[in-house]
Design goal:
The structure holds 4 protein chains of 4 kinds. By secondary structure, chain A is mainly alpha-helical. Chain A has helices at residues 2-20, 25-45, 71-102. Chain B has 2 domains: 11-50, no CATH class; 60-165, no CATH class. Chain B has helices spanning 11-25, 30-50, 60-85, 108-120, 146-165, and strands spanning 97-102, 124-129, 135-140. Chain B has a 3-stranded antiparallel beta sheet, with helices on one face. In chain C, helix 7 packs antiparallel against helix 10, helix 16 packs antiparallel against helix 17 (319-350) and helix 19 (386-405) runs antiparallel to helix 20. In chain C, 44% of the residues are buried. The longest helix of chain D is centred in the C-terminal third of the chain and has 33 residues, at 74-106. By secondary structure, chain D is mostly helical. Chain D has one domain (8-106). The termini of chain D are far apart. The chains are: A mainly alpha, B mainly alpha, C mainly alpha, D mainly alpha. Chains A and C meet through helix 1, helix 2 and helix 3 of A and helix 26, helix 27, helix 28, helix 29 and helix 31 of C.
Amino acid sequence: MEIVYALAIGVLTASGVWLLLRPRTFQVLMGLSLLSYATNIFIFGMGRLVMYRPPIIEEAGATDPSLYADPVPQALVLTAIVIGFATTALTLVVLLALRGLTGTDHVDGREPES
Amino acid sequence: MRAPTTRRLPPMLVLGLTGMWLLLNQTLAPGQILLGFVLAVGLSWAASTLRPLQPRPRNLHVAVGLVFVVLRDIVRSNIAVARIVLGLVRDRDVRSGFLEIPLDMRDPHGLAALAAIVTATPGTVWVDLSPDGSRLTLHVLDLQDEAAWIRLIKERYERPLMRIFES
Amino acid sequence: MLLTLIVLLPFLGSVCAALLPANARNAESWLSGVVTVACMALVASLYPQVADGEVVRAIIPWLPQYGLTFYLRMDGYAWLFAMLVSLMGALVVLYARYYMSPEDPVPRFFSFLLAFMGAMLGIVLSGNLIQLVVFWELTSLTSFMLIAYWYHRPDARRGARMAMTVTVAGGLCLLLGALMLGEIVGSYDLDEVLAAGNGIREHPWYTPVLVLVLLGALTKSAQFPFHFWLPHAMAAPTPVSAYLHSAAMVKAGVFLLARLWPVLAGTDEWFWIVCSAGASTLLLGAFCATFQRDMKGVLAYSTISHLGLITLLLGMNTPLALVAAVFHMMNHATFKASLFMATGIVDHETGTRDLKKLCGLRYRMPVTATVAIVAASAMAGVPLLNGFLSKEMFFEESIIAGSESGLRFTLPAVATLAGVFSVAYSVRFIHQVFFGPPAEDLPRRPQEPTRGMIVPSALLVAACLLVGILPSRTVGPLLETSMRSILGPDLPAYRLAVWHGFTVPFYMSLVALTGGVALYVLLCFRKKTMVPTPLLSRLDAKRAFDVINVAIVRGAGRLARFLFSRRLQTQLLLIVLLALGVAVLPFLVTEWTRGDMPLTPPDPLFALLWIVGAACAIGAALQAKFHRLAALIMLGGAGLVTCLTFAWFSAPDLALTQIAVEVVTIVLFLLGLRWLPRRLAFDTVDRQTLRARARRTRDAIIAVTSGIGIAALSFAALTRPRQSRLAAFFFDRSVEEAGGRNVVNVILVDFRGFDTLGEITVVGIVALIVYALLRRFRPAPESIGVPRAQRDDVLQGALPERLDDPLPRGYMKIPAVLLALALPLVRVCLFCLLLPGPR
Amino acid sequence: MTEIELPLWASVPATLLLIFGGLLTVIGSLGLLRLPDFYSRMHPPTMGTTLGAGCVLIASMIVSSALMHRPVVHELLITLFVVMTAPVTAMLLIRAAIHRGRLRNRK
């Protein structure tokens, strides 16, 4: 399980970084999204992989943390997802505006000379 | 079809939304009913600004009947398509194609209901509606004789829908 | 606490003054006058305590564990300066009321003037080194604003910038010095610092500390080689010059030197550095002042030279010299301020300050003339005036110090020479402005100014006379207390008297007077050499300053161009590489090990899921250039798999959020696609140059490396047991304290509620930005037209031809109806999720 | 996942319904593979969305009602939404296909 998980993070990161280094704004945007997936899963994984034990307390009183998944990374990731969405939307609009202003969708705002 | 500017609350919509609210909350508590009603009124008012024309369905017993007809047809056509897919129809080859149906119904909600029915029954897909709304194009998986299909659509679905929405 | 009030009052006043309407000249001046007078009264009210030699303190702890407290202390010396500052402030305010013309925006002026006064009082009264430096910089800032008051004039802007640069740079040095002092002493408390004099002098850091502090002080009080900013600061309104550049700000430097005198002075370094700076400034200033055309220029250079005199005195390492220095600070403040005011009057009435043009004003402005003459002669050191006394003491000290330091003749000679020049420029100042035939070609017809402008300078001149005639009765006790507060018990006996008998200093001042007059007469005969300043016009410190400025700016630009690339691609590459390097480091230090936690059995379904997910990710990476839609769909696939992963490892909330965000993001992307340029594979494939291929390989290597790295990292982390006390904390608390069973939600909305609030704020800000960007959205020309997919519909007339058409026609009709019907239902569901139901 | 014993009257029909729905969906997907052209491929998946989904929903209704000891009818809403949204997607897919066909004819 852990191996699969780690590999998944790796693949997501790799493709995200690759896209991040591309010259076209759209590619960079996709790269950002993929990277944010990778990051979220990574942070989430820091709470270790726990199955069938969502951090929802069944009965009040005696609560043993080892019975549940770690809620802290989940909370962090929840925030991260929303913020990531905000940034993605922002980047998208910015790149559209850039494309409208500069007439190109190259990240540098102008086509390379070569 | 009324003018887009006038806003009257569509009663059906309000009732439907209230019922839906209760359904979601799984209660019949008076407070919930009231809340749902207020919510429904507000929402359907908002919706009526977005969507000026309102359905005025009548004689609902027809609708009940129609529902059962449609359910039966769904089961049937499922089996039919399954047989086609699994290649159980040896005796003849399956010829699929487009089918043009002249329409008498103009009420958009009726048409919407028709579209829902047509898509819900496997074997027929709604393709196109001519801009003037006089001709409907379907794509039928197993198009044996077109006349039968046209009759089926008009008899089984269009007439009751017209009775519901346009009478 | 009175002290706090003294410092606070001007700042409050400045805030109020800034809020007054622009044309409320009287209100402004009343406000400022009240504030300044109140400060003066407060300071005066503290005199009895101070006179008994006790130190008034006000301590407001701020970060006591770091030795940072807001600490005000007032001893005799501080009292003297506080008095000086507030008194001058009051007079200047009165003067400025009449000087400023109605069209000047007075609120700015008065508010900055008051702020400056507050900062100055802060310097004088602060008992904490850091705090002192803070106020020090505050004075630099406010003086910048005041010099640039007429910011439409380029010379004002330039002068302001120059003064700012020099003084603030000095202030930074001072800050460093203060920090080192604090390190040496172990506390920034001024009392302890003053107590630790010997320890500091023996400390190895002594020399750097001394140099740094001196840099601060000398820049502030315009000592050579930093003197050049003061003449250019004369672009300020005359009240400002009278206040900042004669009485208050330029005195801050020498004030600090005298304040730290017990700590830093008494060594040879001190003697040589301070004395050389002082002496050179003294001579240079006096010399230049003799050849200025502008009245304010003369005054500026004479101020420089007098400050040099004070510095020289401070450098002499003898208590008496210190006494003389402090005494001369006060005297100089009085007569120089009154002279500035007189200059302002002349400027105000005649419209020019040019010594060439002005002539014979005494016929039209007798009162001003008298005032100016008395003040100028005080500056020249004519007997029966305060300038004479301090100059006598100066000569005397120069002899003593010279004999001690082996400069037996140099120092006295320098002193006398400076005296000669000062007499010369004083005489010139007066003679050319007020004597001779009345000038005709003046911009305005001069007459006596309103009483309000005369009174302040007249008062100051009266003070000069009083001090000059009855020194021991007037300033004697004040000087006594202040000196006692600096020097403590070992205050030498000295005698403030007009007549010391026929001593060497007396002859020296005689020489100075006669020589000065003679020099002026001599120069009058050879008028053509008057301007520009002979043999100094070539080496212009200002030009050097400008050159250095330009050099610095250029260098910065070059450095930026060297370090920083405008190209986002390069920047991203650098960032990624940096992150990669940082991540690699730990692997290099400690070899990578897999944790000892047992692996959970791999679930084939999960593996399958992630095979799909990986395929989606890679596909998106490969397709994003030419087939955006496909890439987008695969991105959605990857997101979906992520969401399922969350659900799988028991994080239902995450799964829900992820799916919602996923949908919205994809929809947004789809909306955006329409505005992006078409790019087809075949029109760029042939441009696969070698460089492009190399770049792609490089990027691929980077990407794969980072992927492997993060995979290894996460595997290493996942296989180690986690120890987190946080989880236990939240589990214990969430039901009792927050009354929620879903711990994640409880954390978000309850324990870390403020984080969530901030997050919501971020989202709101983003929404605003998006709105702003889209309002001004200008699509690219080729994507304005109807998209290809809709052209046929246009041909068919399937689009609604009127906007108020309730429904589109043709094939889009039914979807419109259905969605419009579905919308309220969806809304109901959303409300149901929103309102906390019985669940 | 806490194990709760499901009463027989609920488990048997639920199981049957699930099997039947799954079967229908599989057949639909199979049709997606086997049928020749796009338009006819549109049809079989509808089985999954109509009867298949219906069976699954009814099963889930039965099960959850049995678990909560009260009738649970949320699934009706799901049916409603499916019925309302399915035509839209179908129509838009068809439109895309038609558009593509037009393009191909132009070339």
